[in-house]
UniProtKB/TrEMBL annotation:
It comes from the Bacteria. PROSITE patterns: PEPTIDASE_M2, PROKAR_LIPOPROTEIN. Glycans are attached at N163. The active site is at E427 (proton acceptor 2), E427 (proton acceptor 1), H555 (proton donor 2), H555 (proton donor 1). Disulfide bonds join C160-C170, C395-C413, C580-C592. One of its GO terms (biological process) is proteolysis. Chloride binds at Y237, R564. The keyword Zinc applies. This is Peptidyl-dipeptidase A. It holds the Pfam family Peptidase_M2. One of its GO terms (molecular function) is metallopeptidase activity. The keyword Glycosyltransferase does not apply. Zn(2+) 2 binds at H426, H430, E454.
Length: 672
């Protein structure tokens, strides 16, 4: 579940924090205010000058990480105007330093005799900025201010409506999501649509800002020698942007048939539940009915899709909730005297916090079983694991390396449900990546590429098989038969396969916006065209160019590149297969659980320890034996489900058509 978020400098902050990010956010960007070094005044171009530049970037990172980290951490965990101001200043400093160093690094493009290490470091520095800033200080300030404003707008987003008593009540994202997630499948389409609209109207105010933001970043990118910001982003993969484009298309081609099968099955079930007038038999599925605000993962629909009802329950959330309630009962029993309502609220909060720690320890325990170290005491003392009762915080989960030497933290508003348990594993993947590469020079302290960073924790969650969940007491009993296998695969596919088109399209939109292929006056229509094309979903109601629906997703105002997640959802199955092979596992991939396997752990840790010190294909090869990202492991993983879907879809008319250059279709209008 995506949490509400308010982050003044998140987009920029991520540059340094690697909060939920990757190589572009390497520590080199942590470098702070930029007293322009003497070397820049009299630029030299020798190999020794290049070594000095890289050393300078490293030193700034070491010297300033903690100071900048503190500004961003406070801005996200104590949202006040003052904290925002400090974070905005930090952002501006970073932009200045980072853009200056990227520019300086270009001086060495033709320098002979660079050491391989320095040459690689320079490449990373040149590709460093996710938010390339113009060299004009006024424009840089404007860019930082817009970034701050967009983040603030996202975080402050709320939907106000009259409650049952006729009084206005305002809901934040987390509460609005509860209506759209519809886990009980009891809300009406109209109720869900109202909530969906409620959240999507919050991004209207930043539409103009996003246009200016794009212009300014493009100016910065062009000064660094890139055609546009999209080309800069696509440059971070040890191949040309055009080659990277082709790689993404190739991977998408491999997985699209699985998505199409799933889309067909889900549409059929929704059509039966809601009727032809709401969900057409053919054509697009209304985006609000898929159990997620962005229709990015659909596992909340699992009860509707369960292939073989009557097998064991895979419901982990109720076990987590029961643990939390037991905790509360214990606290209440230990309470002396008669608790007042405020005592009760305090006890409830304590129970939430205790349960959050318990869940985080479940995740830590898995990593430790593989040979990773225990998390430092400071992690437990300084992380934010539950939503505070007394203030607003950015709830969107993130992982932080505060000082490049052990002060690691996560910030996540943990609730007792399965999705949150998965997210903790995801965040600890980032944390253990940090800890594993902290010994490297700062410029190499990032993921092999950003998709690697996102894939570590998710790989671990692939070992949370029903059998594993039974062992740790989160499901009651498990059967081992084909029907049970198909059931658990369906549940996972509703997250992992369904995510793929979404994971690709978010940046397809941004890349087109950056290149000018989608013009400002078509921002929203361009967005829906891609959602229709890739996901086969339609907006719940007619949209207009007053709307800015892309801005309702955290990573757009937060300026976090998104293709990383598409790559991660492919890579994590490759990683899992490699770990399972290393562990000596022989059965079907979906049954493999590497918990406690020292050999798998060793191989994983060795990969993480390399950071971005070498091109990612070398790093991938070391773990998996192949130099290419490849979807065959995800296909292998879901083989039983794929066969089931084929059989179920026989005779059905699957697929959808997207009208060429037509405005986004409203939900009720069948696709032609
Ligand atoms: O944003 C995240 C993480 C932090 S890097 C919670 N994810 C993407 C999203 O929620 O949209 C993880 C999966 C995709
Ligand atoms: Zn992440």
């Amino acid at each position: 579940m995506m949490k509400s978020s308010f982050a003044i400098a998140t987009g920029v902050g991520l540059l340094f924090l690697a909060a939920c990010n990757g190589p572009k956010e390497s520590a080199d960007a942590a470098a702070a205010p930029a007293p322009v070094p003497a070397a820049a005044a009299k630029p030299g171009t020798t190999a020794a000058d290049a070594d000095a530049l890289v050393a300078e970037v490293d030193k700034y990172a070491v010297d300033n990480a903690a100071r900048l980290g503190a500004a961003f951490w406070i801005a996200q965990t104590y949202i006040t105007d003052d904290a925002q101001l400090l974070a905005a200043n930090a952002t501006e400093e970073q932009l200045e330093f980072q853009s200056a160093k990227a520019e300086e690094a270009k001086r060495f493009n033709d320098t002979p005799g660079l050491s391989p290490e320095t040459a690689r470091a320079l490449t990373l520095i040149k590709l460093g900025p996710t938010m390339p800033a113009p060299s004009d200080p006024a424009k840089r300030k404007e860019l930082a201010a817009i970034a701050a404003k967009m983040d603030a707008n996202y975080g402050a987003g709320q939907w106000c409506r009259p409650n049952a008593a006729g009084q206005e009540e305002c809901l934040k994202l987390q509460q609005i999501e509860k209506i759209v997630d519809n886990v009980e499948l009891k809300n009406t389409p109209a109720q869900i649509e109202a909530a969906w609209n409620g959240w999507h109207q919050t991004s209207r105010p930043i539409r103009k800002d996003y246009q200016r933001f794009t212009e300014l970043m493009n100016e910065g990118a062009s000064q660094l020698g890139f055609k546009d910001t999209g080309e800069l982003w696509r440059g971070g993969y040890d191949m040309s942007p055009a080659e990277f484009d082709a790689e993404v298309e190739r991977l998408w081609g491999q997985v699209k048939p699985m998505y199409d099968d799933l889309h067909c099955l889900v549409r059929d079930k929704l059509n039966k539940k809601y009727g032809d007038a709401v969900v057409p038999k053919d054509g697009l599925i209304p985006a609000h009915l898929l159990g997620n605000m962005w229709a990015q993962q659909w596992s909340n629909l699992y009860p509707l899709l369960e292939p073989y009802p009557g097998q064991d329950s895979l419901d982990v959330s109720s076990a987590l909730k029961a643990q939390r309630d037991a905790e509360y009962k214990t606290l209440l029993a230990a309470f002396k005297g008669k608790p007042t309502p405020s005592d009760i609220a305090e006890l409830e909060h304590k129970a939430d916090a205790a349960q959050a720690v318990k869940m985080a320890k479940v995740a830590e325990d898995f990593y430790v079983s593989l040979g990773f170290p225990k998390l430092p005491e400071s992690f437990w003392a300084k992380s934010l694991l539950v939503q505070p009762r007394d203030r607003d915080v950015v709830c969107h989960a993130s992982a932080w390396d505060m000082n490049l030497k052990g002060d690691v933290r996560i910030k996540q508003c943990i609730e007792p449900d399965e999705e949150e348990l998965t997210t903790i594993h995801h965040e600890l993947g980032h944390i253990y990546y940090y800890l594993s590469y902290n010994h490297l020079r700062p410029v190499f302290q990032s993921g092999a590429h950003d998709g690697f960073h996102e894939a570590i924790g998710d790989t671990i969650t692939l070992s949370l098989t029903p059998e594993h969940l039974k062992k740790i007491g989160l499901v009651k009993s498990v059967q081992k038969n084909d029907k049970a296998t198909i059931n658990s695969q369906m549940k996972l596919a509703l997250d992992k396969i369904v995510f793929l088109p979404w994971g690709k399209l978010v940046d397809q939109w941004r890349w087109k916006v950056f290149s000018g292929q989608i013009k400002p006056e078509d921002y929203n229509a361009g967005w829906w065209k891609l959602r229709e094309q890739y996901q086969g979903v339609s907006p719940p109601n007619a949209r207009s160019e007053d709307d800015f629906d892309p801005g309702a997703k955290y990573h757009i105002p937060g300026n976090t590149p998104y293709t990383r997640y598409f790559l991660s959802f492919v890579l994590q199955f490759q990683f899992q297969k490699a770990l399972c092979d290393a562990s000596g596992f022989k059965g079907p991939l979906s049954e493999c659980d590497v918990y406690g396997n020292a050999e798998a752990g060793k191989r994983f840790i060795e990969m993480l320890a390399l950071g971005s010190s070498q091109p990612w294909p070398d790093t991938l090869e070391k773990l998996t034996g192949t130099r290419k990202m490849d979807a065959s492991a995800i296909i292998e993983y879901f083989t039983p489900l794929i066969a089931y879907m084929k059989e179920q879809n026989q005779g059905k008319s699957c697929g959808w058509k997207v009208p060429e250059d037509a405005p986004a279709a409203a939900a009720a209008a069948p696709a032609t």
